[in-house]
Batch of 4 targets.
Target 1
Amino acid sequence: MSLLIEARNLSKSFRSTEAVNSLSLQVSAGEIFGLVGPDGAGKTTTLRLLCGALKSDEGEIIIAGFDIPQQVEQARTQIGYLPQRFSLYEELTVMENIRFFAEVRGLSAQEWKPRCMEILQFVGLEMFTSRRAGHLSGGMKQKLGLAAALVHQPQVLLLDEPTTGVDPITRQDFWRLIIRLVSPIRDFSNNRKDPVAVLVSTPYMDEAMRCARVGFMKDGKIIIEGPPEDLRKSLTGRVLELQGNPLPALRQIAKDDIDVEDAQMFGDRLHIRVRVGKSKVVISRLRTQSQTKEYEISRIEETSPQLEDFFIYLLEKQD
């Protein structure tokens, strides 16, 4: 697959704040690359630099073969960008919004209507063409934003936390659309289309697991990247899952253990990260402590590490 997004040693500062610091990444056609990191890590600034909305202080950006900023207008014809906040016109209908962005992108009157209907059908909004954008639900607004970003058939899709604030079912629907976009054949008018390259920032670890690769950002840098499955497996044998009562007290007992590095609440259970080779020792010790005090451990055993476990470990390691 061809390389469609390339950033080399990208940096951007706002006064004394270094938002992006010597960042490099590559995304190929047919690939979803996820940016994950805490608030203020530099994810949004990175996406704005890549789409040409901000000018970098240092570094190089190549989008679908075009250099930014020297060929920024040519590069923008290949970019579909969906910002964090809904940025379409709420007083216009769904169809009027799509038509506006189609015509801004240079589609002729003969092209825009069939093209718009294809896109709206793809995102599931073909029955809502006359509804004002301001009257759409949060999930439908995001789908309309995606439709507007796709109307000119871009090769590169930049998505800034596209599913934040929408319900779980809509999140699933949205990701099904993204996955269809990176497949070799896209069913707009039954024509064969080249797969796009997708760069998406997300606060959700289940979404990050859907990406071919993820990059963990902190303080403007990608501190590690790789397939999410490989990253989480790096903690194999070091994560315990505990269920019992009272959970907050059990968490504190676990954190006080000399061989426990961290203990976090995961719903109705704890995930306990232990030192290398210490899982059996910790399990035995915690069971013994729970028998001598007013605590109850109903289950404690090794478990498969989650991406959240790795993310927390990585942040602690950096700090």
Target 2
Amino acid sequence: MLLPFPLFLALKYLRPKRSFISVVTVISVVGVLLGVAILVIVLSVMTGFDEMWREKILSFKPHLTVYARGGPLREEMDACRRLEALDGFRGASPVVMARVLLRGSEGRMAAPLVLGLVEEGARRVTRVADATKSGEFRLEGEQAVMGIDMAAQLGLKVGDQVLVYSPLNVIRRDELYLPQELTVSGIYDMGMRDYDEGFILTSIEVARELVGMDEGAHMLYVMTDDPFRFDQYAERAREALGPDYVVRTWKDEDRLTFAALSHEKTMMFVLLVFITIVAIFCVTNTLIVITVQKTSEIGLFKALGFSSRQIMSAFIWHGWIQCLVGTACGIGSGLLVLHNLGRIVRWLRVFHVEAFPKEIYGLDALPWSTSPGEVARIALFVIVFCTLSSFLPAYRAARMDPVEALRHE
């Protein structure tokens, strides 16, 4: 089967030979490869960050949070029963929250948030019980569960005692509140610094005593069957509870976190696009070199009757082939790096290079997730820009005067 003349001519110019043009072509393809690979790797890591943050947040925090208008909740158990009776609602639990001061062994101090919950309700509205690595998830009486980073910071282990100082000592300066002594019943590891270092869970009775409440709760934690149908479930909760309650979704509670991740991903894409565009211009340079080197040959083709459109198509095909090969190899190289990302991070640690410290990034692993849609958009973007970058040298070759071109012979 005979190839069309433009494709035949493009393949002829791409044929490996011991010449400078072949080296330039290889360099152009490698440039596109690196640009595409960097885009795939960085966007996949950013997508992984977004998904892992969402997973960690939904493992610790509820899908919906219910507040009373104008103060604390007074009929919290009745509200929980009404919510749990709704279709798609897995559990609801009252919560008392307060910022406290903790004193561990050897006088070490921390200032976490205390969450006071009913143990049975806590098991339904959070996955901390599943993430408890040491001891047991027990909140009855004067027991507490804390994160692995906080336990390390305070030098605590299961069975140790910790003193919890009430914030009322600061709010009501004319009164003195003695600290609560709690026993560490369990240590959890959520894999996220904010939760492993910044929270301590205890019984709702202890939390109420710390904030001076006799009854009630600050909020309700609600878990549903599908966290991504939060708008639908939030509307059901509002209808069931009435206008005296405010219902907020997990996305409302952490909107700044997800907005920051979205903007950071967009900015990374915009910045890295310039690297890819520079690589694409290498294709333009290759085509310009070929038009100069093949001036007489182009003039001969035109003298033999080949149209300007055919000559132009040949050079566009030349640019397309380089970009298609570079894009395909770039996507493959990017995916190969991503699949070995954990090994690369461990290998860097051998040379004392900590590529992903939990203290900075807040996560215990370098996440990544490849979206087929994003990969397709990257490939489409590169091919479109390659086409545009091929037009200038292709147009120059097509407009070449055969008489002037043959003078170079």
Target 3
Amino acid sequence: MKKALVAIGDFESGSELIKQLIEFLDDCITEVHLLHVIDKQNLEQLAIYKGKTLEEVLEENQHENENILQKLILEYSDTHLYITTELLKGLIADKIIETAKRENVEFIVMGTRRESITKRLIKNHVRYVIELSDIPVLMFPV
């Protein structure tokens, strides 16, 4: 039985990551822990842009992301996968690494943008997860 941590950003990329994971590992993967991390810095900028308080934007974002996680569970409920979900707030890379250790997963799955994989690796949380992780990190284009 293999357990993976799948770090998602939105429904489409989350769904695409799960599909690719199933195709890549076929029946070897049996458990998936979906993780979405709310980055507070991004929300602060969004709150300023929308002219709302951080608390208002955080509440909206949290509700939207809980719905995304539930939709992903429903979409893959007829597969052989056992899916758990978690929504956290904080620094994305730190939360991914902490959750991977706590959940005792065998590997981490993350998505990258097809058009700029190298550019994104240089300046984002994917690079930090790869550098900090003691376990393999699989990256799929989404």
Target 4
Amino acid sequence: MTLTPQRGHVYRISVEPDATLVGVVVSADWLNAEQDTCITLLVVADKSAPSLPHWVRLRSGDPAFGHVVCRDVGMVHRDELKEDLGPLSMETMVEVGHALKRVLGL
């Protein structure tokens, strides 16, 4: 089953036959619909992570726990998306957007 990536949604991503990562899609939905790949940021499940300007802590209502690492940008093929865990909260996505702007110098 191939999933259609949605901006702001968190996915389990297959990286090897027996290994998965968790990431959030940040590319625009119009681009996700047209391309076979999407832009993602890694989610790390580390509650004790340092307070860094490019790490965004996930909230209790978000579909994963830990942090979004906004400098760990990757391209993921839609066939590698294995499970849609749901969308991040609007508040978290706003913070992710601010962190991405800092990382990219925008």
